[in-house]
Structure formats: C-alpha cells, structure tokens
Amino acid sequence: GRLEKLLKTTEEDNKKLAEEFKDEDIFYCLGSGPNFGLAYKLAMTMLMEGAIKHACPEYSAEFRHGLIERAEKDVPLIFLKSGLLSDEITDRALETSINELEVKAIVYELKDYADVDSLLSPLILVIPLEWFVYYLAHFNGEDPGATRHIGKVRY
After folding, report:
1. 135: which residues sit within 8 A by CB, 6+ positions away?
2. Phi, psi (5° rounding) for residue 58?
3. Quick check: 39 and 58 in contact, CB under 8 A?
C-alpha cells in the first residue's frame, strides 16, 4: 500500500540528505499542532539516541523566544509541515530562518509524501525522517538500533 511505497520512494533522497548533513553536531526540530509531537520524537529519540547527535525540539511558536537567539548561519533546522492552520507560525519561523538568519533549513512537508488528512502527518513524515536518521547514524559509524547508556546506567 501507500506506506510500503513511501518506504521505497523516500530512502534515496534521505540517504543523500543524511550524507550532506553527517558532519553537523546539532539539529533543531520545529513543528506545530500534531507535528510538535513528531519534532519532539525526532530530537529526543531519533537524533539523540539513534544518530548520537545533539538535538532540541521546539514548538514553532516558541521560535521567537529562544531559538531565534541560537539559530545562526549554517545551523541546521528541521521544519515539519502539514498544511494545518498552525503551520502559519512554522512558515514564519522558516521564512525568518532562511531569509534573515541563513540557517540550513530542512523541510519535511506532508504534501510532498501523501494526500491524506493533515492530522495524520506525523504517521507519514516519520517514514522519511527514519531514513534520514538511519543514514545519518550510518555515515557516522553509529548503530541506530544500539544505545550507549539506556538500560546500562542506573538513575
């Protein structure tokens, strides 16, 4: 079905993207509405645990409070968009990031992958994001399925 097709059609582009970004140390992940949960997962588990990269999730509306001070030229920001009204603030952050701050913007937009209800965007966008993180780990010699401390360090 649709998901199997996405698994096949999104691998190569995200492999190339991962190779391009393999040397980056930190990623900021922005989303709003249902995509904020995915931005959080992307930063906290996929990038930090899977690719061993520093990452920070950010609700798009909070961009102007903290991240705007840290987003600098050539810093990678990942934007998740789904066509919902809340994307207006994501678009504003994206515009500012590219036009004024000159960040390295990576945009994952639902309409590029599927024609489904926007509320389902996290279920679709996670597929290309998984490829991106898998290859990001691969190009850095990491095993995205292994953890360094989880289950080993008592806390």
Report:
1. 14, 15, 17, 18, 19
2. -145, 130
3. yes
Angle of CA points 129, 45, 113, to nearest 5°? 15
Query: pTM of this prediction?
Result: 0.91
- Give backbone dihedrals phi and psi of 148, rounded to 5 degrees, phi first: -85, -35
What confidence score (pLDDT) does residue 152 get?
Answer: 63
Q: What is the rounded distance in angstroms from the CA atom of residue 12 to the CA atom of residue 101?
A: 29
Asked if residue 27 lies in contact with residue 55, where contact means CB atoms within 8 angstroms, the answer is yes
First to last CA, the chain: 43
Residue 90 and residue 57: Cα distance in Å, rounded?
13
Does the pLDDT at position 56 exceed 80?
A: yes
> Residue 141 in 3-state DSSP?
coil
